[in-house]
Design brief:
α1 crosses α3 and α5 runs parallel beside α7. The mean pLDDT is about 95. The strands form two sheets. The chain has a four-stranded parallel sheet with strand order 1-4-2-3, with helices on both faces. It has eight helices and eight strands; from the N terminus they run αβααββαβαββααβαβ. The chain is an alpha/beta fold.
């Protein structure tokens, strides 16, 4: 959405595509789970009186629209992208099959996972965690508008402090909003680290992939040896 109030901001779209292409060219296999809140958010639809399942399916359709836009922008950067959708819409996306996703990654294609998990009541955070496990990713990178996880909302609390590192247990117990509880628990149970960082700052994605200290690292708690 970028600076726009709704829909797709072309400046933001093409900047993100350029950064994804740069990361791919560095030799990193890259998969993207994309949301649809810039077009339609299922929870908002449910809050206005819609049936929750219907609202969530509309949100999934919004992610497919975003995925098509991102695929086009990536391919304008000279890289190859494939959309794998949890909802079957074969005219514009391949159906999600785990082995197919892995094969695309092995062929150095950027994989875009659309339509979340394909089920209502599950967020794209949960989809990101699930797909990360399935393709045996090294890490989940959560790009947000905020440059990490804070003790409180930095937009409303000037004294909020950013965590450099955080354990899954702390994040869950303190309800810090890293991801929803289902997604966070899935990552914890499978020891999948998460890095929360600002996607709005140009160059951050490449810095994170390069191992620089950007944002907040959430990982399994490491106990001191006795």
């Amino acid at each position: 959405m970028g600076d726009a109030g709704y829909g797709i901001d072309n400046v933001m779209l093409h900047r993100l595509a350029a950064e994804l292409a740069e990361v791919r060219r560095s030799g990193v296999q890259l998969a993207v789970v994309i949301g649809g809140g810039n077009i339609f958010r299922g929870l908002n639809g449910a809050a206005s009186g819609m049936d929750r399942a219907s609202a969530d399916y509309m949100g999934m359709m919004a992610t497919i629209m975003n995925s098509i836009a991102l695929q086009d922008a990536i391919e304008r950067q000279g890289e190859v992208a494939r959309i794998l959708s949890a909802l079957h819409i074969k005219e514009v996306a391949e159906p999600y099959i785990r082995r197919r996703a892995v094969r695309h990654l092995e062929k150095n294609r950027i994989v875009i996972f659309a339509a979340g998990t394909g089920n209502p009541y599950f967020t794209t955070d949960t989809a990101a965690s699930l797909r990360a496990m399935e393709i045996q990713a090294d890490v989940v990178l959560k790009g947000t508008k905020v440059d990490g996880v804070y003790t409180a909302d930095p937009a409303h609390d000037a004294e909020a402090m950013r965590y450099d590192t955080l354990s899954f247990t702390e994040a869950l117990n303190r309800q810090l909003g890293v991801m929803d509880a289902t997604a966070l628990s899935l990552c914890r149970d499978n020891n999948m680290p998460i890095i929360v960082f600002s996607i709005t700052r140009k160059g951050n994605l490449m810095q994170v992939v390069s191992g620089e200290s950007v944002g907040t690292l959430v990982q399994e708690e490491i106990c001191d040896a006795e």
